Amino acid sequence: MANSKSAIKRIKIAERNRLRNRTYKSAVRTLMKRYFETVEAYVASPSEALLTEVNQAQSKAYSKIDKAVKRGVLHANNGSRKKSRLVRYWRRSTASLEAPSA
After folding, report:
1. What is the end-to-end Cα distance of the chain in Å, rounded?
2. N or C: which end of the chain has fewer CB within 10 A?
3. DSSP alpha helices (H): ranges in the chain?
4. Distance, CA of 75 to CA of 2 (rounded, Å)
């Protein structure tokens, strides 16, 4: 156990930050999973409505990732890697849809 007042305060602050960070990380993971599911649904049956859903899911995920980076929950490179992963998934998934059938 901590012996000084400042050490006790630092323990409380660290715990508070840990809980806040955990909620951000969880939200980022959830939004990324929702995006992947939406892309899979779009690839299964492409439509304008599903494309709009994909764009909204991507926007929400990007926003939460950027906020996590801004608040120091994620490192900037980690946030960039997560956003890159979303785009890469979209491109790989829709490559078969855009391929010309000549």
Report:
1. 72
2. C
3. 5-44, 48-70, 76-98
4. 29
Q: Where are the domains of the chain?
A: 7-93
pLDDT of residue 98: 72
Q: Which contacts (CB < 8 Å, 24+ apart) does range 25-34 have?
A: 25/68, 25/73, 25/74, 27/64, 28/61, 28/64, 28/65, 28/68, 28/74, 28/82, 31/57, 31/60, 31/61, 31/64, 32/61, 32/82, 32/85, 32/86, 34/60, 34/61
Tokens of 7: 């050490």
- pLDDT exceeds cutoff 70 at 102: no
> Tokens 């990007």 map to which residue?
62
Class of domain 7-93: mainly alpha
The predicted-structure confidence for 29-80, as pLDDT tens digits, reads as follows 999 999 999 999 999 999 999 999 999 999 999 999 999 999 999 999 999 9
Q: Is-contact 79 66, C-beta < 8 A?
A: yes
Entry pTM? 0.85
